[in-house]
Structures are given as C-alpha cells and as structure tokens.
Amino acid sequence: MDREPTISRDQSRTAKQERGPSKGLAKGLGRDVLVASICGGVVALMVGASYAAVPFYNWFCRATGFNGTTQVATSAPATGPIARKIAVRFDSNVAPGLPWKFEPEQSEIEVNIGQVVTVFYTVTNQAARTTAGQAAYNVAPLTVGSYFQKINCFCFTEQTMAPGEKREMPVVFYVDPSIADDHENDGLNTITLSYTFYPVRDPVVKPLASGEGDKRKGNL
Description:
The chain has one helix and ten strands, in the order H-E-E-E-E-E-E-E-E-E-E. It is of the alpha+beta class. It folds into two domains: 8-64; 71-212, Ctag/Cox11 (Pfam 04442) (Sandwich), CATH 2.60.370.10. The chain has a five-stranded mixed beta sheet. It is flat.
C-alpha cells in the first residue's frame, strides 16, 4: 500500500516562516495606520482648541477682570460715590512701528470711589501718511480689573489718524464701590491705568463724522 507523501519538519518550519512575516507585516501596517489616525485627530483637536482659546481667553478676561482687564459699564453706579478716595495714575506707551506721540493730559488724579470721571489722552500722528492703531489696556494691581469700569474709551475701537493730526481722546470711568467690600484691597491707595497703542496694518475706513465723539464734553 502506497504511503501518502509526507512533509518533513524542516519543510513545515520553512513554510510557517514564509507565511509568518506576511501576516506580521499586515498587522504592523494596520497598527501604524491606527496610530497615525489617532495622532492626526489629536493634532486637529489641538489646532482647533488653539483657535478657540484666543476668543475664550479674551471673553474670560473681560468677564472676570483677570490679568487686570478692565470692565465695560453702560452707566454710573447705582449707589453713587462713597467717601473713600483713591489715586488713579495714567500710563501711555506706543509699540514699535506706529509713529505716534501718545500721552495723558494728567499723570495722576484723586477720585472718590464710585465717582464718574472723564480724563483725556493726547495723540499725535507724527508721520506724513495716514496711520491707524488699536490700544490694549489693563490696570495694576491686576486684581482690581473687575472693579475698574469704563463707560467710554478710545480703546474700544481702532483709531485712524490723518498725517500730522493731533487728537484728544477721552476715557470715562469709575471705580466700582463694591471694591470697599473686598477686604483684600483695604490697603489699596493707587490704581494705574495703562495703555499701549499697536499699529493696525489694514485700518477700517470710517466716515469723517466718527471723530465727533472725541470732542470734550466734560464729566458725565
């Protein structure tokens, strides 16, 4: 009786070795694709988060006064001024690339907490061309940002200046009386309001009448 052909152990081992790498390679490629997909998703998530972080950070600062960000008010405080006084200093800066002279008309004033005050900064465009700038701002100490309320400010919008133009820009503000209830600020005697104008590359064209708001109107 004829025997069926047999395969030696060496031949069987060789066949397994030939099949093994191809299966391992396929598994490896599948694993690499999975890892690459996960990494790509993480990168896309991080990029999206970075774009969302900027407006969220700005909103957070405006809402909480974080990092000395001042607040925006629509009217005077309902309680009115209180007897406690505080000094407010004014600081001005211009970033490189903007040919402006920018300074406060008063370096420091003393006000009652809750008193609505109007002060002016003077800005001069020293260039022979039209230029535009946008002011960034904060107050120091940084912890009082939530108490410093602005009713009107040139910093709310970008400013476009004609060649050689000089302009007086108002700031209308008050220090919220609720600061008196914050015992961490019991020893606070001075607040510094600081502005820095940065150049705007593509200024928004505004009608001539928009400059009427910069005229002196006195304290509100």
